[in-house]
Design goal:
There is one protein chain. By secondary structure, this protein is an alpha/beta fold. The protein contains ten helices and ten strands. The longest helix has 22 residues.
């Protein structure tokens, strides 16, 4: 049996959007969908009087999700699962056998700990398969696939994933490499160094190498290269992908510490996802200390 698309569902607007997105992808790829709700009962005693009520509420939520899915995509096979534990740990476990995990984006109205405790970040950091993070509100556009690159092994995986997605959907692919130019005070300390120009030239080479071979594999794919030198990578990706159908990023990049699971650029993007965003983890990459 094919691996299923797993949706983390909690009844929020973000999880509703995640379910809708997952159903469309499942219909396209002819895959089943599993809708998962986590009951975080780690703090409860089995004898706690509301324990069963919380379970029943979770199952009722899942039944509503299944009814919604049946109305949206009647031809997609949908299963529901009520699991125990934190949302992050539950979705980490199911990611081991999933084609992709889909969750709603960060809700800026949450007041229970702020963005650093956001469930989407936890899931992306722990997942063993690609994770799609879907914003609650639909963007202004739905054409084109954008992918961020920096020459790291993870970003090359992201390019491969994004190119396949763009080709399958008949979209153009925009490959973005962004870095912030050195401050003027740095340039002044290095007379005639041309540091900014040297960095830009090196990154043009990285950008070209990142898309090497795509033309042969996808002859009908239109690829645009964009080098952004005046802004931070996360901001550049969010701005460029504002009207895109999909943004693809690697789990971490060349600037990440060796023991860091989620890179700073991925982390920043996920706090303000401009469109459906997939963080790839096609296969694990070993990094030296």
């Amino acid at each position: 049996m094919s691996k299923a698309i797993v949706v983390g569902f909690n009844g929020s607007a973000g999880s509703d959007a995640a379910l809708t997105w997952a159903l469309a992808r499942a219909a396209r790829d002819k895959l089943p969908v599993i809708v998962v709700h986590a009951v975080d009962d780690r703090w409860m005693s089995p004898d706690f009087q509301y324990h069963e009520i919380i379970r029943e509420s979770g199952m009722e939520l899942l039944q509503q999700a299944r009814e919604s899915a049946s109305g949206q995509a009647p031809d997609v096979e949908v299963d529901i699962q009520l699991r125990h534990g934190s949302g992050g740990s539950v979705l980490r476990d199911v990611s081991k056998e999933a084609a992709i995990v889909v969750v709603g984006g960060h809700d800026k109205r949450w007041m229970d700990g702020g963005p650093m405790t956001d469930r989407a970040l936890q899931v992306v950091a722990a997942s063993e398969c690609p994770v799609a993070v879907i914003p609650a509100r639909r963007g202004t556009g739905d054409r084109g696939v954008v992918v961020g690159v920096d020459g790291s092994a993870e970003s090359l995986q992201a390019v491969a994933f994004a190119a396949a997605e763009a080709d399958l959907g008949g979209d153009g692919l925009t490959v973005v490499l962004a870095f912030k130019s050195p401050g003027r005070w740095v340039e002044k300390k290095l007379p005639s160094s041309g540091l900014a120009e040297t960095m830009a030239e090196e990154d043009r080479i990285v950008l070209a190498e990142s898309i090497a071979g795509l033309g042969e594999k996808y002859p009908d794919l239109t690829v645009e290269q964009r080098l952004e030198t005046g802004t931070e990578p996360a901001k550049a990706l969010v701005n460029i992908a504002a009207g895109a159908r999909l943004l693809v990023i690697g789990s971490r990049g060349r600037g990440a510490f060796s023991r860091t699971v989620l890179g700073s650029t991925a982390h920043a993007v996920l706090l303000q996802v401009p469109c459906p965003t997939i963080v790839t983890r096609v296969h694990r990459v070993k990094h030296g200390d």
